[in-house]
Structure formats: C-alpha cells, structure tokens
C-alpha cells in the first residue's frame, strides 16, 4: 500500500510541471525566431580580454565586435571601424570608428573604448592570455613584462571617433589580428565582469547581448537593437547549448532540439554522413595534427635522417581514410592550405607512392645507423583518448613494419602530457596540434622560431630564424610571402616535426538554417544566419 | 538524542578540516596546473597570471589563505570559469543535483523496497527469480549504456521527452535522468531488501503474528518492514550522498548543469578551488547523511540507544 501510494505521488508531482515549452522550436511564444546551437564546452570567460578558448571566442563574436570582422564566407571586412588609413612605412594605422556604433545599452562606442580594451589586454593586473596578440604594438612587450606603464601603449584616441595605433615593425596582418575577441573594446579600463551573478548586466557592442548563462547548461543571447547593423540581423534569440559529449549532441540534433552542432561523433561518422547528406558540413580548418620530436636530446638531436625516415614511413593517406576517416586532408606541409596570401611548400616526397617512400625511408634509417638488429626505441606520448590511441597504434605499426623502429606507446592525461612536453625530460616523440589564431602563415611558423616559449621541440635553425626575421621586416606582401615560404621549406627539409593531417571542421546544420557558409576559420556568426519557416 | 546529535556535528568539524587539507595537498600534487595548455604562454604572462591567482606563493601560504577564506564562507574564484566564483557555481549546480538525486533515491527506495518485498514473499518461485533477474540487469548494465538507449527511444524515436536539459523548462526533462540514475539503485535496494526481508520473515515474532491470524500485508506493514530496512538504511546513507553530488555520466549525457560534472572536469582542468569546494560539500553531506542514518536506526529499532 505505502509503496504504491508513494509511487503515485511521485508521478503526480512530475506531471505537475509546466507544459513542455519550445522544445527546439524555431519560434518562441512571442513569434520571435530562436536559434539553438551546440557549443562543445562552457566559455571560461565572457570578458574579451580574459577569454582564451575557441568556444569563448564563438560566443564573444556574437555579443561583441572588434575594429574588423569577417563575412559569412571568411573575408576580412570592416567591423566597428568604418575606414582606416595606413602610413607609408606601415607603422601607423588610423581608424575611424563608425558614428552609429553602439553598446547594448545605447551608449556610443568611441575610440577611447578601444584604447581601454587594448590597454587591458596588456595590463599585467588583468593577466590576459592573449596579450601577445598585440605584441607588435609599440611598448606592448615592455608593459606585459611590467617595465612600462599601461598608458604608454602605442594606441591613442585622437578624438571620439579616431583611433591611432602605432606598431614597432610592419605587421601586414594587423587588420586580421584586430578581429580577435581579445581586441574588443572595453567600457572601462578597470571593468570586471561578474557573470556569475548577473549575465544580463554584461554590456557589449555586438549584434547580440547576454540574457542568461547557466554554466554547464546553456547561454542565452538576445538581439541588441542598438547594434549599428541590427537591420541585417535575422534571428532574435540565440541559445548556445553546452553539450560536451558528441553523441549526446547528435541525439539532440536528431530529436530536433538543436539547429546546428559543434561537432560530429567520430564513431559512426560514415553512417551519419549517409543519413544526413548535405546537412553535414565538412570544411578544411586552420589546424594541424602532428608528431613532434624532442630535438634537445638523442636520438633525435642531430639526426635528420632518422627524423626523415620516420616521417616518410607513415602512410598519411591510410591514416586519414581508415583511422580518422572524417574527411581530414593528409599534411605534407606545416601551414594549412587556405591561409591568406600564402602557398605552402610541400615535403619533397609528397607526390611519391608509399612504396617509394618506404624504400627511401629504409635507406635513410640505415644511414642513421639503425637496422633490424640495432633498432631505435623511443616512447611515443599522447593524451588519453580513443582517437589518439588509434592513430598512435597505426603509426607504431607502420614504423615497425617498414623500419623495424620500436615505439612504446605512452598514454597520459592531457595536463600531464603537456607538463612532460614542456619540461623536456621524458618526452621523445609526442602528439601535438596547433590551431591558428589569425589568418596568416606566421601564426604557424612563429611556433618554431628559436627562443619562442611555445617552441616545445627545441628546434633551432639559424637559416629558419633569419628568414623569419627578414620576412617580418618586409612591407611588400609579395616579398614577405617569398621569405615565409622559403622559411617553411627550410623547416620541412629539417624534419623538425612530422605533419600528419590537417583538421577539418565538422558540423550538422539543419536545412532550414540559411547563411551558414563553410570557411577555413570555422567562424559562423549568428548574425549571418537566418531560419526558414518550417511547416 | 539531541546531545548525541550535537556531539556528532561538533566532531565532524575536525574531520572536515582534515579532509580539506588532504584534498588541497593532493590536488596540488597532480602534475600540471590550471592554466597549462598547448599554447605555451610567454614567461611574463604566465607570471602575471600566477601572481593574480596567488599560485606563485609557497604552498603553506596558499593553504592558509584558502582555509581562512573558507572559514568565512568564501570558496574562492574558479580558475577555469574566470567570471564565476566557486560559491556561485556550486549555488547554481547543487540544487539541480540535489533535486535529481532526491527524486532518484525516492524512486529507487519505493521501487526497490517494493520489488524486494514482493520477491521475498514469493521466495524461490518463478516470480522471485524474474524480479531478481531484472535487478541483476540493473546492476550489470552500465549507466552509460542504459541512458543513451533511453534517450534514443524516448527522445529521438518517440519524441516524448527532451534529450537535453536546456531544451525544455518543464519537469518532464527530469524523467529520463531520474530513471537512469535510479535503475542501478533500484537493483541494489531490491536485493538488499529481499535478503533482509527473508531473514526477518523467518523470525519467531513474525511466526507468532501469523499464528495469531494477522494477514500478510499487515505483517509487512506493522512488523516486518521496519527491521528489514536496517541494512537498506546503512546502504542508503553514503549512497544518497554520492547520488546527490551527481553522476558525471548522467550529467554529461543529458547536459545537466550539476555538481558531478564540475567535479570531474574541475579535476581534469586542475581547477583547484572548484574541486576543493565540491570536496567540502561532499564530505559535509557524507557526514550529515551518516548522522541521519544513525538517528534513523533509533527510529526503526527501538532497541538502539544513543550514547
């Protein structure tokens, strides 16, 4: 008796809830259009200067705007800046801020706000991750190091609508840098967001404004009527649903709760592709997956033949077709294709057949002093994950079959892996990836410049470094490009790293979503999207 | 009983303190830090960040700073969620986890005790074996298999229920997660109840009651249920505390903003303050529920005295 009564009470309680509301419906009760997007993890911050992740940048691009922006197809376009001029020597940029640019509370966006934002970015007290985005602005380096006052930064508001930026050397990609959320304006140099208590009080200057943020669940954005281009914004409400697990995201897409997903699960990729056809959008992405060598220690130190042999013995086509199988492109260069004003050189053996590569690899291996009786043995480190494991197993097998090279697989938790790579004591071969921050070749090439703390391989080449320095001094973009391509040729010939494949971005997008264009940056601003009426 | 309760609560304070200090040391002993990433930062920026979060101070000083804040109720800023404090994150997530956990435990208790009693009354018959077989599947099939199957059936195919927490405001979004959370518990509780009920039903006072003509349902309700619940209660004390702090798997599958996810992700992200805050809550819940269970012993079995 008692248990049955208890069970009945339970059922009654649960049916007493509100009726099901807008389960992924494209219209809410007032007829406003609502977009439901999947986001793969919570932003760590919605403060433009404190954020660092791709997901935070995705949301920030919806609620904020920098001097420059991108079109739906990935073309650089003006943002909050109406126009700009560059001095002859390429060292002074003068921007005119739109006079109809507004914050979400109606206040005008002025040049002083951009000054405040850029100063915040380099202020040691704010501890911004992306402070080095603007490292080339005058005095930025000294301010970050604490050797100069924040006010000495080479940015100045000569009047309410005019912003002058002075750089210490020519930066041809400065405009592309100024799309980055870390350069977004701030209302006050000391502003601090307390999103935990009041997401809706965040004042931003983009096409949308924050309504609510429940960490672990979702972020809700609403149209910013004061945005200068609000007339072009179609969707009224955007919900970014935080769904970490890819299969769960797929299920929510299938049940109609999400219009777009942030990813596609790798497990049943092919059957999903068959099921969804055009709804699956796969596009090259500015990221590379590679294996790095610890070049500070034997056996890889001073042994280019061994490195080249290992690189050649890997069948990248098999890797991308059979192991990862999601439309990735095999990588024979360091900088991904699709990078602005750049034609990446390729490894010399890119066009050979795998058998030919194997033969050359074997002879190089012998020349390096190894053989079947005297094999090299190293540890191959990667972070614990099914995909990494499969790739590592495949590469281990290829190295063993072709060369007799023994790689011991070591799977570690991600933070432990990073720590091992950084201190260089344990890491020999390690899995790495790099995603570009801006659309220029230097975001990849800078990684391997000697002395860069991010250069975890320990690669040091005078030829490479001097070519990079000379490229940095060029004002003419074509000459600069020649130097950069030559530098990459040096890098590839030295086999400092083994490029494996270039990333692709994968999304599922419902047919009623219009305006989603594939681009190598994988930027899909909500303000470019619209929803068709669904019967 | 009041004195006993007070003594237990006061005795919990040094326990909690010890737990926090140990957890603090363990969490800092793990390699890697909260701000490590593939993008190695320039030294000055790293130094700035470390100074901002006091991570460059010697460990004892950091521990002292942390404890003096905790005593004042401030669990610190989250290192991973830079716009949120640990207090606000837990304040948002704990009610969700508690509601889910409470509903799941109630469902598990009601269903498990009913099933176990039913089986005990029909001991060794086919019905008994069938009920216990269902219980076994509840224990042996992992929750990360059952939950997606439930989602696939009820949310994707039939579209009766939402697949995700944030896609709906109604109470129906609780149903699938609660059921998925409760299933293994129903299984355990059913088995425990059956075994304990069989024991109790064999005692002499039950035989006396039957001899006096009392019907089965009255026997269960007035004489057998309470003593049979003792082992179940022992099990449920820590089980409730564990469920209330969330099941990571359920929370990830349904996208529920609960405490379990913050705990595991916090550990992986080296978000020291968030992890420690949740450890404190969890330890306090375990202490509290053990106390409640001990007090309930007295209610169920009048022979128990509190000293």
Structural shape of chain B: globular
CATH topology of the domain at 93-257 and 285-300 in chain B: MetI-like fold
Oligomer: heterodimer
Instruction: Find the count of extended strands of chain A (DSSP E, 2+ residues).
Output: 18
Q: Structural class of the secondary structure composition of chain B?
A: mainly alpha
| Order of neighbouring strands in the sheet with most strands of chain A | 12-16-11-15-13-14
End-to-end separation of chain A: 48 Å
CATH class of the domain at 93-257 and 285-300 in chain B: Mainly Alpha
CATH architecture assignment of the domain at 93-257 and 285-300 in chain B: Orthogonal Bundle
Low-confidence stretches of chain B: none
Rough outline of chain A: globular
How many alpha or pi helices of chain A?
A: 16
Order of helices and strands of chain B: HHHHHHHHHHHH
Averaged pLDDT of chain A: 87
Radius of gyration of chain A: 26 Å
What is the tally of helical segments of chain B? Answer: 12
Q: What share of the residues of chain A does DSSP label as strand, in percent?
A: 15-25%
What is the number of strand segments of chain B? 0
Strand content of chain B: under 5%
Low-confidence stretches of chain A: 14-24
Distance between the termini of chain B: 8 Å
Structure description:
The complex is a heterodimer of chains A (535) and B (307). By secondary structure, chain A is α+β, with helices and mostly antiparallel strands. Helices cover 30% and strands 20% of the residues of chain A. Chain A is globular, with a radius of gyration of 26 Å. Chain B starts with a helix and ends in a 7-residue tail after the last helix. In chain B, helix 6 crosses helix 7, helix 7 crosses helix 9 and helix 8 runs antiparallel to helix 9. The longest helix of chain B is centred in the middle third of the chain and has 36 residues. Chain B has a domain of 181 residues: MetI-like (MetI-like fold). The model of chain B has no long low-confidence stretch (mean pLDDT 87). By secondary structure, chain B is mainly α.
